[in-house]
Amino acid sequence: MSSSPSSSVIEARKALANRLVEIRKGAGLTGAELAARCGWHESKTSRIQNGRTVPSEEDLRAWCAACGADDQVPDLIATSRAVDSMYTEWRRTEHSGLRAEQESVAPLYQRTSLFRVYASRVLPGMVQTPEYTTAVLRSIQRHRVLVDDVEDAVDARMDRQRMLFSGRHHFGLLIEEYVLYAAVCDSSTMAGQLGQLITAASSPFVSLGIIPMGTERPHLPVEDFYMFDEAEVAVELTSGYLRITRPPEIAEYVRTFAAFASMAAHGPHARSLITKAINALG
Fold it and tell me: Which of 9, 26, 222, 282 has the fewest Cβ atoms nearer than 10 Å?
């Protein structure tokens, strides 16, 4: 896996920049000549070619026109939009409240057959109780969202849960044992949530693994991630989320998930770890 999820965005930008360099060279132009034809400063060409400046769609059209490569414009614009959509700040998705974000992912969830989730901070949304979800979303709302629509957002997540557990979806959940003790809500809510986790684990559609505290491992991804079949991975960051769709990168997450699954406790051992956490609540 990349050393940092943000490196995926950097690599994608560099790949786009390299394509533009190839188009320029194919046209037999120097950077200065291309800049003159586009009507901008030579330093802008340099920044675009080095991946330091993300070209606008107008920049891409001008670049291709200068190189006699207008046929490349549609694909370059599509690539640029894909790069731009890789990283999204929470403030962009949450500016009107939390419910819109919950509803926006419903189509992706609906068309996914196999979910694989690695959770190191809070329990996965698809197995949360309404009370636990309320505590988590309320904390987010107080921290960074001006609009208070937490109740509506909780309802939207619960609606999605009912759709997910219709029998058409399967889940592989890997949870760090620490999450069973994370104080994101009061003890009563946490006890109910852990009980719900045991219930969810009994479903034939759910494979639950708990990674015990102190487990030695070759590496630990800092960020939680959600895999939607092998079509997309969503990585949750502090400032936003990263959407990964490149097959080679997705394959790295598949391998990482498999490695972590081999370290996790499953079945009765996993249930005993959850029960231990419940007992610790008193």
Answer: 282
